Structure formats: C-alpha cells, structure tokens
Fold this sequence. Notes:
single chain
Amino acid sequence: MLTLTVDKHAxxxxxxxxSAIRSAIKQGQVSASEALPSARQLAEQLHTNRHTIMAAYQxxxxxxxVESIERQGYKVVESFPVESSRHTKANIExxxxxxxxxxxxxxxxxxxxxxxxxxxxxFAGGNPDISxxxxxxxxxxxxxxxTRPDLPHLSxxxxxxxxxxxxxxxTYLRRARSITDKxxxxxxxxxxxxxxxxxxxxxxxxxxxxxxxxxxPAWNAFKTAGAELVAIKQHSKGIDIDHLTQxxxxxxxxxIYLTPLHQYPTTVTLPxxxxxxxxxxxARYNVAIIEDDYDxxxxxxxxxxxxxxxxxxxxxxxxxxxxxxxxxxxxRIGYMAVDKSLTQALINYRSVMNHKPNxxxxxxxxxxMKDGAFERHLRRTTKQYQQRRDHxxxxxKNYQEQGLDISFTVPDGGMAIWLDVKxxxxxxxxxxxxxxxxxxxxxxxxxAQKNNQNRYIxxxxxxxxxxxxxxxxxxxxxxxxx
Length: 482
C-alpha cells in the first residue's frame, strides 16, 4: 500500500493527491517502473471517489512521472523528469565547448560605442531636436486612432501599410517633390527599405556603385545580400560622372546608390545637369538607382531640386525617405516610392520578415498630415534649423577670424556642416568623445581607407539649441590650444 499524506480539505483535491504521489516517488517510497495502486484501491484508501484519483494520475502522466499501460494499470516511469532534464543539461554542458555554428558570420561595420544621445554635446549629423517636436499636436490624432480605430486595417493583410497614410504621403510627394506614378510602400525606417531592396534586387556577387564617401548602414544592407561595393570617386561638386560612366560600362553594375541632395556626409547638392547625365547613363545600361533623400525637407537657400524620381519615365529610380528626421528616430516610419512592377515583389519579401507594419502610428501620422499640422511643423522646424545653421556658421567664422585654420562651405540645406580642420581629424574626434562631445570624423565615411585624408569632421547642428552649439564647439576646439 502506498502511504500518502493528503489534505482532505484542499482544493482542487486531485492536484494535491498528484503532488503527494510525486513526493512519494521522489522520496523512494516507490521506485522506477514500479506499479501503483489502481484508481479504485487508492480511492478507497483516501476515502475519495475514483474519478479524483484518475484525474491525479492523468496530471502525473502529463508531467512525465507516471505512465498508463493497457490492461496493467498505472506505474512509475523508468526515467524521472528531473533526472532526464539533468542528463540533458549535462550533455549540453559537455558538448558546449565543441559546438560550432554552421555559418560564417558576416563582418559589418557597426558603431559599438556609447550612443550619441548620451553625450552632453551631440554633433551627430542626422540628429533632429526631439525636444522641439510638438508631441501635444500629435497626441489628439493618436487619441483619435484609439477612439475611432480603423479595425480592418489592424488585422493581418495589406502589408504595404495604412491606406490613409499612404494616400497622404502620395499627395505630399506630388505637391512637394513632383513625384507621381509610383507606388508607396511603408517601412520601419529607411534602413528596412534598403535591406528589402537589397534582398529583392541583388544576387550574390552583384556590384553596387556607391559614393566613395557615404552612408555605411546602406553599405551594410547591400553586403547582407552578398553584393560587392564599388566606390564612385567624388569631387567638390559631388560624384565624378566620368568615373561612374566608366564603372557602369566596364564592371556590370547592378545598382547605383546615391544621396544627391545634401550628399552624405559632405552636404554637397548634385547639380541638375549632373543628375540628368546619371539618369541617362542608368537608362542606357538598364541600371536601377536608389535615391536616398534622407532630409529633403530642410533646404534653406531656395526650393530644393526635384528628386531624380520626379522624372523617371523608365521606372528605374527607387525613392527612399524617412520620418526620422522630421519627427524622431524612434517613430520608425519610412517609405519607398517604387515603380509598380516592383511593388508586389517587395511586399512579398517584406511579408517574410513581418506580417504587418505599425499601422497605428501610420494612421495617426496620416491624420496629422491630412489636418495640415504636419506642414506647419515642417515650416517651423525648417526655420529653426536654418537659424541653427547660421549660428554655427557665424561661430565658425569667428574662430577663423581668431586665427584658427579651418574651412568649410555653407550648405544650402541639410542638418550638418562638413568642416576641414586641417589637422588629425580622428584625433580631434577622440578628444571630443573623451570630453563629452560627440562627432564623427572623415575616416568613418570612407569605403576605402586609402582615400582618407583625415582632415574632415561632420558637425550636425539641428539637434542642439544655439547656446549648446556654442558651448559644445568651444569645448571641442580646446583641442587646438593644447
């Protein structure tokens, strides 16, 4: 007879009986493979009904302590669950040192230091002033989404994005950038767009022509598809068209990646006649173009040049943009404007990554745009950033007048200045980081380090108020008085 101690008043009773049997097994009252009393016998012993005992046995079967054998009844299993788990853990530990992952990790250039926003003075080139964003203006539209949700769009399906948001973006692109006849696909920031395009368009070993000084996260996206990056030479006016022509003619280029407005990182804007040459070249050799227009809104001297995508009769240009600079990076809202022939392939691949973008945030932004508050925010922000650019320009000119040997070209737009410090720029960067000043020097933007002159730094001005810009610059330029 199995001796069990069971609380007769405990509920549910079958769980307490199961616990008592399990304790008896652990304590050795019954051994592995030993038969247990029948449900009728144990019910009589414990003065309860047979169904309660059967429920307890079923619980122990589910836990792996007991097994039921037809025509023989219940018995203890051969290997207890605790011993099995210990045995498995021991095997894992024993084999851990010899296990090898069956892949070769892809080496990518990724920044691993302290995040830029943790520095007191943050000269990151694409950093908006998040503190100035009108959260109070967006709040009613977020609330409206929750009060009057578009329920069908919150379910699976329609992986292109929220239809109201897409409609508003299409209207905005038509009015502000003259882009028409393209499909809009929403993404979780421009980086997701670049990754999707890479996976859909590039084969292993495909060659992508990129600006020799450029945007490393985009390069990383191309590398994940197994692409080979080919550097396009640059000069003071932008990329070298003659060199690009030779590359396209001789190297079987599959894709051209450009930042023609406020080139990243040099801030140069590619003239219209050069853009026409690039498009004609791409059309002649049937090469796709990614146009990354990351901060189009912030142009100060005049209306910015229309994007390449605005005059794209062959559908070669994939236009990529983001709300990260307009709003804040954490909103994770970007979009692609693509030729209709590409739309379904991109959406299909995107569905492999995730079933649905963040349509709730898109819905709120779509309502914000429709109301007109979005464009009012753009006007305020553009004016504010122009004032900050002018303040930084004035401060730099004052340093020049005091004898500091630096030079720069005032950018027509954007969020940064490309400054020639005519010294060891990497050393200046390290000095800044050690003194709570974040900036990035020229070496971080070169595809080929042999071209690094180690003279330039990129000074972002959008994310700090004028007084912060002044103090941060003074702290950075203490380097020159050492």
